[in-house]
Amino acid sequence: MTFRIALKSKPSPHFHEPHKRWQVLLNGEPWGDPFYYNMRGFRGVLPLPDGRSFDPGEVTLTRLRQEVARINREVRAAASAPTEAAGA
Description:
Shape: elongated
Strand content: 25-35%
Radius of gyration: 16 Å
Number of strands: 6
Order of helices and strands: EEEEEEH
Structural class: alpha+beta
Low-confidence stretches: none
Strand order of the largest sheet: 1-2-3-4
Distance between the termini: 25 Å
Helix content: 10-25%
């Protein structure tokens, strides 16, 4: 099973909203609602491999990208880690 999160910028649906929204892509497909800019940072949720959602709080775009990279790294590390044989 592949699991990869990416972000794609999206124009805001509102004329006076100065910040772009960011759509979360899970394996290349849109997932959930886009991140939107609040007064202190971007708000939204990220998917986790076990099916839960992670809310990073109000974060900067840089911090949001770091969280996406961290989740992707953890998934790659878990996928490449040797698994123990059942019953061993």
